[in-house]
Write a structure and sequence with these properties.
Elements (H helix, E strand, L loop, with lengths): L12 H17 L17 H20 L7 H6 L9 H7 L9 H17 L1 H5 L12 H21 L26 E4 L2 E5 L17 E5 L2 E4 L5 H9 L11 H10 L7 E4 L2 E6 L2 E4 L12 H10 L7 H9 L53 E7 L15 H4 L7 E4 L16 E3 L8 E2 L5
Parallel strand pairs: 8-11
Antiparallel strand pairs: 1-4, 2-3, 5-6, 6-7, 8-9, 9-10
Helix pairs in contact: 1-7, 2-5, 2-7
Length: about 450
């Protein structure tokens, strides 16, 4: 795999990393006293792990991995090295540290600050390495650390969304939820044509291993929902007995519904005889957010599709709808080549919650499909597997994708309100388990 990237064009990734650190610190600052050790999602570590994991990852990649330095604080480097992805709570309990054995908060913060200073100091050393190492060329390893931080900020936010209100503090100036009704359901015709998945390694400053090499595939003509399926539409499914109809669910999905006692999506709850939708800092009546995307698992999305005589689109079909055009030229973003901005979608931490699916028409694709980037990742029917020619090029992180090529994870597309704009590039690929209810994910139907 080629590793050359013109060093004169290297962006100031350290400035971007400094900004990401400030945002991470602000997220941890929303935790009330004592909440750092809370574990609101049983399949994740407690918050304290992420406080140490983010700096540990930076040190292990840059100094230990690329520069060959010894451990910084070996016990902490190892303790915070890797997260977990179990398929049930018992496996998660076995894989994590007992609650009383985490280091003290002040010890972790001191470790974090020392690592950050070390990473600032080692930029020149990485730049001075001989060309030919794909991690040091173009400071890719710093891009790796930056994007890892950005991805985990979304992890922190969906953990914060599960935390009781008494354990978090709403920041001053946090925006109120944007409410609104659902637009009429409408299907859009997507003409047949090619779509490229991934990118050339030397075409972008950084990409994760699953983004390479590019692969062009043909997509048949299809119809696709103009907007993601809304809360109002999904409410019809839930209140119409969808969770009780065995015929709408595959075996794994039905077992999950029965085991969990599901009767509605995870973020909906009943209070005083009325349904509400949880938000990051409270809740809103469900009647007020009919236009929000329905945040559900892939299992629920597929059941809704069967209920409405539809199916989930593939990754390639969504990418064709997003980046294809009538003249055949691929677009950098659904709306064209302009850099992502507030008019194009709900992303980049501008909001703390979804917005109505028709709120950003300037972000529509050339085929007239709305809300493709931001407002909620979109489930696909595509399993997360390596494409032909896949190479785990990051020698310091060889399992980033390969550890999840197990047939148990599903590709999700697009982004949510807490996805950084840097992660909206056309080639980025993300994935989750299909019955994972905490990720900010929605869906649209295909025919």
């Amino acid at each position: 795999m080629p590793s050359h990237l013109d060093r004169s064009s290297t962006p100031d990734v350290l400035s971007a990393l400094e900004a990401a650190w400030r945002r991470s610190d602000a997220l941890f600052d929303t935790l009330a006293p004592g909440a750092l050790f809370a574990r609101p999602i049983p399949l994740r570590h407690p918050f304290v792990f992420y406080l140490g994991h983010l700096p540990a990852f930076g040190w292990n990649q840059v100094a230990r991995g690329v520069l060959g330095e010894p451990g910084f604080a070996p016990d902490l480097d190892l303790l915070f090295e890797r997260g977990i992805d179990p398929d049930d709570a018992s496996a998660a309990r076995a894989a994590t540290v007992p609650a009383d054995q985490w280091p003290d908060h002040s010890e972790i913060v001191a470790y974090r600050d020392r690592v950050r200073e070390a990473l600032r100091d080692r930029v020149a050393a990485v730049q001075a390495l001989p060309p030919g190492d794909p991690l040091s060329d173009g400071l890719r390893v710093y891009h790796l650390v930056l994007e890892h931080e950005l991805l985990h900020q979304e992890t922190l936010l969906y953990m914060l969304a599960e935390l009781p209100d008494a354990q978090k503090r709403r920041p001053a100036g946090a925006p109120d939820p944007v409410t609104g009704p659902a637009p009429p359901a409408e299907a859009v015709a997507i003409p047949a044509g090619p779509v490229t998945l991934g990118a050339r390694f030397d075409a972008i400053p950084f990409g994760w291993d699953n983004e390479f090499p590019p692969q062009t595939v043909s997509v048949d003509r299809l119809a696709l929902d103009r907007h993601p399926v809304t809360v109002e539409a999904f409410r019809g499914f839930a209140e119409g007995g969808g969770y009780a109809d065995r015929a709408l669910w595959d075996a794994a999905g039905w077992a999950w519904v029965q085991a969990e006692g599901r009767v509605r999506p995870h973020r909906w709850f009943e209070r005083d005889g009325a349904l509400h939708h949880r938000t990051l800092y409270g809740s809103v009546p469900l009647d007020q957010v009919g236009g929000w995307p329905a945040l559900v698992t892939a299992a629920e999305a597929e059941a809704f599709c069967r209920w409405s005589d539809a199916r989930l689109p593939t990754e390639a079909e969504l990418r064709r709808a997003a980046y294809g055009s009538a003249d055949g030229a691929p677009r950098a973003y659904p709306w064209g080549d302009a850099a992502p901005g507030p008019a194009h979608g709900n992303f980049g931490f501008v909001s703390d919650d979804p917005t109505p699916v028709d709120h950003h028409p300037d972000g529509d694709s050339d085929f007239g499909v709305s809300d493709l980037l931001g407002n909620g990742w979109e489930w696909t029917s595509t399993p997360f597997l390596p494409r032909e020619g896949f190479e785990p090029w990051m020698r310091t992180y060889p399992g980033y994708s390969a550890d999840f090529f197990d047939g148990e994870h599903r590709v999700i597309f697009g982004g949510s309100w807490s996805t950084d704009r840097r992660l909206l590039r056309r080639s980025l690929c993300n994935w989750f388990r299909p019955r994972y209810p905490w990720v900010f994910a929605t869906f649209r139907r295909a025919w």
